[in-house]
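Hello Y.,

Per our agreement to keep a running log of every chain we model this quarter, I'm adding this entry. I've kept the format consistent with earlier entries: sequence first, then predicted structure.
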Amino acid sequence: MNIRPTTRPLAASLLLVALTACTADQTEHAGVTIQRSDCVECHSGDVRAALFDHASVDFGSLCATCHVETTWEPTRVPAHDAFALDGAHRAAACGACHAADRADPQPTACLGCHAADRDGAEPTHAGFPDDCSACHGTTAWRPATGVDHDDFFPLTGAHRTVDCARCHIDDVFAGTPRTCVGCHAADREGATPPHARFPDTCDDCHDTVGWRPAELPDHDLFYPLRGAHTEILCRACHVDDVYPGTPRTCVGCHAADRDGATPTHAGFPDACTGCHTETAWRPTNFAGHDQWYPIEGAHQQVDCARCHVNEVYAGTPRTCVGCHAAARDAAAPPHGGFPDQCTDCHDQQAWRPTHFAGHDQWYPIEGAHQQVDCARCHVNEVYAGTPRTCVGCHAADRAAATPTHAGFQDDCTGCHTQQAWRPSTFAGHDQWYPIEGAHQPLDCGRCHVNDVFAGTPRTCVGCHADDRVGVEPPHGAFPDACTGCHNQRAWRPADFAGHDQWYPIEGAHVPLDCGRCHVGDVYAGTPRTCVGCHAADRDGADPPHAGYPDQCTVCHTQQAWRPADFSRHDDIFPLVGAHQQVDCARCHVDDVYTGTPRTCIGCHRPDFEGAVPTHVRYAPECLQCHTQVAWEPAHYAHVFRVPHEGVRACGDCHTHPEDFGLLGCTTCHEHRRAEADAEHREVRNYQYLDAECVRCHPRGDD
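Predicted structure for the entry above:
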C-alpha cells in the first residue's frame, strides 16, 4: 500500500525505524506497510533538491541502497568501492572530485586528482615515482611517512632538525654525499686545531649531537687526559697548533713550575707522579716521606716549613722530641722524669688527651678518673708514694658516706666503680634481698634505719605491712606474698593474673579502680558478663538497644564503647567508605530502624534533585557514577569519546555548569558561523546549534 506524499518532514518517530527494515522488501512505516521502492514517492522533492545531482546517473528508486531512515547523511555509496573514501577524503565534499556535482567516472589513482599538487611540491618531485602512496597517506600531505631516509643516510642528533635544502641544494637529491666529510669538508679544513693530519672518518672523534665536545680516544696513545687535564684547551699543550714533538711527560710541560716550586724541588726526581696527581697540584701525595718520618694526624695539616725551616731538609729531626723538646720541658706536669719516647703517652692526633698506658702498672685510669687533672692525685707534682687503692684517696669520702660505711670492707670496688659514686653496684645485696625497679633509686636509710643492717626485713610485707593494711581495696583476705600481684617497678598497675579465672581485665578496664566493679569491697557475686555491669548503659544507649542481644561483645570491645563493630549491618546495607564515619542517627532518624531506605536515592534524593549539574537527565542509580567513598570524583561512562582533542576539563565542553546536557561545541569548533555553514552545505536540516552537533556526531567522530 502506498502512502500519500507530504511536504512536511517525517516525524522523529518515523526516523527511528531500524536499518534492517529499510533493506527488507517491505516494512511497517508508522503503521503503514510500504514497499522498499516507495521511498522516492514521498521523497521525490528531496531527490530533486539534493546537493548531488541524482539525475545524472540512474540511481533508481531504491533510496535504501545509499541512505538509511535514521538520517539522510552520511550516505553509503556501494558504487564508490572503486576508490575507498578514507582519511581526509571522508571529509571532502563530493564536488571536490565530481565537478558540477555529477557522478561522472573519476580517476582512481592519486595523480589523477593531485598532479598539480605534485608538480608544485617542495621539494621537487620530478624524480619521484608516480605512486604517491609510497610516501604519503590519505590522512594528510605532511608528514610523509613512507620515506626511510636511513636507506641513504641515518638522520640522528642535530641532523634531525636541519632543513632538507641544507643537504639537497636546489632540490637535487641524486648524488647527495653520504659521508660526513662529503658535506663538512669546509668545516674540517677550517677547524682549530688543523685537521689536515686527521683521517676523513669524522665519527672517530665527533658525533651528530654536536661538534664539541670531541672524543679523541687515540690521545691515550700519546698521553692520557685525566683529572684537570680534561678541562684545559688543546692549545695549552699544542702551542700554535703544533702537534709533533709535544712533550709526553709531566716535567716536559711543567719544568718551570717545578723549578719555581716551594719547597725547592732541586733534589727531587723528575717523576712528578711520585708525589703529585693530575687532579691538582696540592695536596701532594709524598709517600716517600715515610722513610724519614710518617706524616699522620695533626702533622698532615702542618706546613712543610714548620719542620723544614728555610727549606733545609738535610738533618731534619726524625723523632718527636727532636722538634718538641721545648714543649716537653715546659709541660705540666713536668716531664723531667719521663722518657724521651713521647709515643708512649702521646700520638700525632693531638697533644691531649694522652694515653699513658704505663700508668696501669701503678693504677688503671678509667671512667671518671680519665677527666681528673693529674694534680688531684699527684699533689704538688709528687708521684712517688701516690696511693694505689680507692680508699687511699677516698678515705674521707668513705668516712662521711651515708649510710655509714664503718662496717664495710676497705675494698670499694665491691660496690662502686670508677664511673661514678652513685649508683653503686652492691652485688652482694642479692644474698639478702635483690634491689630492682623502684628500689634502686631509694636511699639505703629507707630500709636500714639509723644504719642498722642486722635484722632488716627480707620480704615485701616486712617493710610494707602498713601499706598493705590501709590499701584500697582491703587486702585482708589476700596472701602475704605481695609478688603474686605486684612487683618492684611500681605499686600500680597490679598484675593480678588470677583475675582471668573470673573475668579478663583488658582495654579500658585496665586503668579502672577495683571499686568500680567491686562496690563496697564486695567480691563475691560480682557480675562476670558485660551486661551484668553495663545494663543501665545498655538501656540508656542511643540508639536504643532494646532489640539487641545481651552479648555485648558482638559489636563492642573492652577498648572503648565507640566505635562499635556492627558487622551484621552488611546484611541490610554495607557500611563502606564515607558511610563508616556517619553517625547512626543520620540514617536512623529519631532512632527508627524499621523501614530505613536501603538504596542510595532513598536517603540522597534531595542531593540528587539539587545536584549541580542537574541530574534530571540521569537515572536514579547513583552507583553507576558515584561510590560510597566520596561524592567527587564521579566516574561517568561517556558515550561521547573522551579525552577529546585538547579538552582538559568538563567545563571545556559543558559550558553550562547547571546543566551538563547543554554543550558548547561551537566554542571550539569553527568559531565563525559562515565557515561552519559552508562546510555543512550538504547536511540536510543543518542548524548552527550546539545541540545539533551531537545529533550527527554522538561519539565525537568526524
